[in-house]
Design brief:
mainly beta; Immunoglobulin-like; 3 domains; 4-stranded antiparallel beta sheet; 16 strands
């Protein structure tokens, strides 16, 4: 068996740093002699833990969010030779922001943590009796700071057939601006076919 006598850590891209747009670096080990029998290493981060993780295959990925800094990666040969090598990788900062979706009355619908420059996922359309939801008051396709987004509604065109039940709650039919008919009861919202919507 030919043991490893030399080891170095290289980057597949030639870069030894991560950025917000490129948060990963693929590392690999170069062995000497080239005739070494067992060319396998164990990867680990020996300093700067919490800034990044590294897989068994050598893929180093910055954690999110990230204040930035430097990590030291070590590769250790697994052939029993005891050979190892280290390499410092610069980790670029990755900022994250909070996007809060609220209803018309300030009730929080959803809260998301989004990387700087990335988009938030829109929650399901909220419901407000007597109104039609039309969208959100701010664009969340590229978030650059903490933001509160509020639901926007328009008044429905007509309400008719109001009646009270035995508990005092009111049920009524609702005609929206598109001509759709709904039944609103204390237990929920139903379409004209009796299917519960909310």
């Amino acid at each position: 068996m030919t043991y490893v006598t030399g080891l170095s850590i290289l980057s597949a891209s030639g870069s030894y740093s991560t950025t917000a747009t490129n948060p990963s670096v693929y590392l690999y080990a170069e062995f000497s002699p080239v005739s070494a029998t067992y060319k396998t290493v164990r990867w680990e981060i020996v300093s700067g833990t919490g800034l990044a993780t590294i897989s068994e295959e050598g893929l180093l990925t910055a954690t999110v969010p990230n204040r930035g800094g430097t990590v030291t990666v070590r590769a250790t040969a697994l052939d029993g030779s005891g050979m190892s090598a280290t390499r410092q990788i610069s980790i670029g900062s990755i900022s994250c922001f909070t996007v809060t979706f609220t209803d018309w009355d300030g009730t929080v619908i959803d809260v998301q943590t989004v990387e700087s420059g990335q988009g938030a996922s829109l929650p399901d359309d909220p419901f407000r009796a007597g109104y039609k939801f039309t969208g959100w008051d701010k664009d969340v396709s590229a978030v650059t700071g903490d933001i509160t987004v509020k639901a926007i509604y328009v008044t429905q065109t007509a309400v008719y057939g109001v009646k009270s039940d035995s508990t005092g709650g009111e049920s009524y039919k609702l005609l929206d601006s598109e001509g759709n008919i709904y039944l609103v009861t204390p237990s929920g919202l139903y379409n004209m076919h009796g299917v519960r919507l909310k």
